Q: What sequence folds into this?
């Protein structure tokens, strides 16, 4: 899932840049990302989920700066699609459900 969390977002970013002739404009990116109510809904949903996860990470690892930095780097260099799978991978045994 971590691999897909990196590849999928960057695939679409490269497609966006290719469509725009490799010219980057942050304002144009967000204008295109929120072009209709459906995409705005997805952006809001993902934004709230990512913000909630980040606040949880800050609270849970405030005394462990290396882990806090690890998940923050994943979140801000790639996105929620990498930070969440890395967190789940690191904490698999803590959340393991079923027979031991």
A:
């Amino acid at each position: 899932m971590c691999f897909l969390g990196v590849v999928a977002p960057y695939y679409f970013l490269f497609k966006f840049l290719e469509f725009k002739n490799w010219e980057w404009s942050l304002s144009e990116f967000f204008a295109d990302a929120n072009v209709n109510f459906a995409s705005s809904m997805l952006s809001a949903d993902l934004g709230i989920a990512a913000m909630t996860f980040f606040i949880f990470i800050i609270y849970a690892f405030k005394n462990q700066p290396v882990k806090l930095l690890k998940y923050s780097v994943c979140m801000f260099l790639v996105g929620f699609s990498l930070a969440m799978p890395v967190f789940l991978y690191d904490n698999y045994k803590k959340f393991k459900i079923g027979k031991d």
